[in-house]
Amino acid sequence: MHDKTIAELVANLRRGDLTSSDLTRHYLERIERLDPRLNSFISVDMAGAMAAARRADERLRQGEGGPLTGIPIAHKDIFCTMGMRTSCGSRMLDEFIAPYSAAVVERLEQAGVVVLGKTNMDEFAMGSSNETSFYGPVKSPWDARCVPGGSSGGSAAAVAAGLCAAATGTDTGGSIRQPAALCAITGLKPTYGRVSRWGMVAFASSLDQAGPMTRNARDAAILLQVMAGFDARDSTSAHEPVPDYVAGLEADLKGLRIGLPKEYFGEGLDPRIATAVETAVKEYERLGATVVEISLPNSPLSVPTYYVVAPAECSSNLARFDGVRYGHRCEDPRDLEDMYKRSRAEGFGAEVKRRIMIGTYVLSAGYYDAYYLKAQKIRRLISDDFRRAFEQVDLVMGPTSPTTAFPLGDKRDDPVAMYLNDIYTIAANLAGLPAISIPIGTVSGMPVGLQIIGNYFEEGRLLNAAHKLQQLTDWHLAQPPGFE
Amino acid sequence: MSLDRTDVEKIAHLARLAISDDEKDRYAADLSNILNLVEQMNAVDTSTVVPMAHPLHMVQRMRADEPSEQDQRDLFQSIAPATEDGLYLVPKVIE
After folding, report:
1. Which residue of A206, A338, A357 is in closest CB contact with B31?
2. Which residues 6+ apart lie within 8 Å of A223 measured at CB?
3. Which one is the CATH code of A6-250: 3.30.460.10, 3.10.180.10, 3.90.170.10, 3.90.1300.10?
4. CB contact under 8 A, B79 and A326
5. pLDDT for B41-89, tens place per residue?
6. HSE-up of residue A39 (Cα within 13 Å, Cβ side)
7. Would A137 disulfide with which of A107, A131, A306, A468, CB 3.0-4.6 Å?
8. Do residue B11 and residue A360 have CB atoms under 8 angstroms apart?
9. Among residues A25, A463, A11, which one has the least CA distance to residue A244?
10. HSE of A167 in the Cβ direction (CA atoms, 13 Å)?
């Protein structure tokens, strides 16, 4: 059952070949049996999931229900889920029971999903390996000695291992796409503003975006259809119509113009990944696409720029954790300042503290222009590179990550080495563009992802291109050994 | 840019983070490394570039100044570390 796509499961449930109760029990049993090897879940809601499944079955029996009625999914633990712990991978929120649900959670609930639980993640979504979680690292289902990627590593590992039909993720600098690539699943970061951020714990508000993590592009289209759309409660929610993503999947790719940025194939890229990307691009040529080399000259500056913008916004967003209204409070504070300082020191882990301090420094008097304003200007240059590229091509393609999954502990003590993992993913966040990662085979048994970046609000074109490749190839059907 | 222990103390105070003496050297080294990465930005002349604060060229929406939320004080205070009579408790601020 767990190797089926959402599209197949929805059909099975509607026909009555399968009940949501059986399906939900199957996933819960797999989580109990297999997740000790992965640590991909922080919280599992057995009773809540079974109750939701019974309600779904009742609706299905009556011929009612939404597009996802009875489908068991998991939420990244960054989305507020009313009545359920929402930890964000942090000791700070270890005991935080969300008093309301995020817009993404509400929308999926209205569409009928069953929530199995909350997935592990880097603390406050800050990391590329899932090793900064207060709840311990997630291990790759492809090799337990390796990382699953991050920050949505729990969601990626859980989908790849067949512990849920799909999962939600968030992406501030690559946190959906990089773990999707490393775990061989499909992960989509929509255009900034496409999906409501309301109820999603904020990291860097001008970059954060939620998206689906699924077994294939069709499932991503089905989920995005539900997740996308205007929400008045998110001040930067986009007022753009939501097209029919599923209907657009089959469009012909003849004449599609693909650009390969030369900067994405230079030093630092594993040559075997470059070969895998070239092989995938050849498939697009067979489908009638034309391929040209393009240049995104400022892309080498995306990592430095991001490590000013994101920490600056994080230092401001995380100032709310003061030990007063919710979250961790230290024992026996001497005075208010002692309470702030020790509550935050105890509640946050090392990587979060590093980023808060970098952000505080670049925003402080005397340094603002040299760092923060400079970064905002380069952000414009990076964005302009894409604007020029999309005058010439429809889609930009390249590797999602410069390497396959690396061993646990390898980069944990070297923040800068860790940051360079996101060298190909960060630019789409800085520019606000939609981007998807899809599996394109393995190198020494470890998955490789193809990243496709599109123009603003062209998620449909990304999903179409991803789907057509998945019709022609079977890379997305690979399952990690031991989790079949 | 290279930061020392004194810089780290100052930044940690601004960020309201308690740090122990034995952490300071490590933070000074880590933060300096990150700033060295960040300073690659200086290779580009940006004197004529307009800063970009936000990916979409949108203006903030306005709404009427009317209450749109119900009072949920009890629910929200149920997750607070310390409350009394509907108020949040903090250490004494004024002697």
Report:
1. A357
2. A6, A68, A108, A166, A168, A212, A214
3. 3.90.1300.10
4. yes
5. 999 999 999 999 888 877 778 888 998 889 999 999 999 999 999 999 9
6. 18
7. A131
8. yes
9. A463
10. 36
